[in-house]
Amino acid sequence: MVNNIYVVISLRLKDLPEMERPRERLLLCGVESLSFEELLAIIIKTGSKKKSSKQLALEVLSLFGIDGLKDITVNGLCQIDGIGKVKAIEIISSIELGKRIVASSRLKTRYLLRTSKEIYEFNKYLFVDKKQECFYCLYFNNKQELIERKLLFMGTINRSVVHPREVFKEAYLCSASSIVCLHNHPSGDIRPSLEDKKITNALIEIGRMNGIPVVDHLIFGDASYYSFYDDGKIINM
Predict the structure, then answer these.
(1) Residue 33 has pLDDT above 70, yes or no
(2) What CATH topology corresponds to 110-227?
(3) Do 106 and 123 form a contact (C-beta atoms < 8 A)?
(4) Which of 60, 117, 184, 236 could be stapled to 127 by a disulfide with Cβ–Cβ 3.0 to 4.6 Å?
(5) The dihedral of CA 8, 12, 13, 14: what is its sign?
């Protein structure tokens, strides 16, 4: 039984019936008909001397799972015999492109986000399993509709990293009427640090001088958030 399974897995793609080859199936039946394994095999393109692209795809999915692909790394993929840096980079680039397409399509609709809870629910997926701090700004029109979201900084958030000029440059480029800042605490502790407070106060003051108010700053934890506005630390004029 084991030997039979091994023979099937070890077959080269060109030895498979046409309807079982991922590229041919895509052309004949449409991309929707392909499994995760087949889609990944197409991205991998070619196998190694010992393994077909389908077998490599199966190993990737077995090792990381479909949910684990979103955070996969070059080094992680290179653990698999038959996947080198070039293949790993191609896989990661394809996954990142898909993530950006999804994020972009969400922003084509003008979402009305009026409360900190609505902002949290709409953006919490951005910080799932993130190991470092990420600082985003949301830019709104005068109806409180989201018109743009930008990842501005990554790493430990401090005044030497978070440059107000970048925050407000993007606001001018998209003609924003107000700004909401977001960042995460990978520790899960949502309490604002002293540095968080200093940064927030600086941005609020600059926003008032420029006529583009910072109306809130949310800190995301594992399954909760902190809002400077809800805590009375920001008073919207």
Answers:
(1) yes
(2) Cytidine Deaminase; domain 2 (3.40.140)
(3) no
(4) 184
(5) negative
Domain locations in the chain as residue ranges: 2-105, 110-227
Sorted by sequence, the CB contacts under 8 Å of residue 147 that are 6+ apart come out as 107, 110, 139, 140, 141, 174, 175, 176
| Three-point CA angle 141, 138, 145, nearest 5° | 30
Q: If we measure between CA atoms, which residue out of 165, 163, 166, 161 comes closest to residue 150?
A: 166
Measured between its terminal Cα atoms, the distance across the chain in Å is 73
Cα 133 from Cα 185, distance rounded (Å): 6
**Interacting residues of 221 by C-beta distance below 8 A, sequence separation 6+:** 184, 185, 188, 189, 190
129/192 Cα distance (integer angstroms): 20
Inter-residue contact 176 to 147 (CB < 8 Å): yes
Cα angle value 40/95/81 (rounded, 5°): 50
56 within 8 A of 64, measured Cβ to Cβ? no
> Which contiguous run of DSSP H or E holds residue 137?
strand 134-140
CB-based burial of residue 106 (10 Å sphere; 0-12 exposed, 13-18 middle, 19+ buried)? middle
What pLDDT, on the 0 to 100 scale, is given for residue 145? 93
The angle formed by the CA atoms of residues 102, 137 and 223, to the nearest 5 degrees, is: 70
171-219 pLDDT tens trace:
999 999 999 999 999 999 999 999 999 999 999 999 999 999 999 999 9
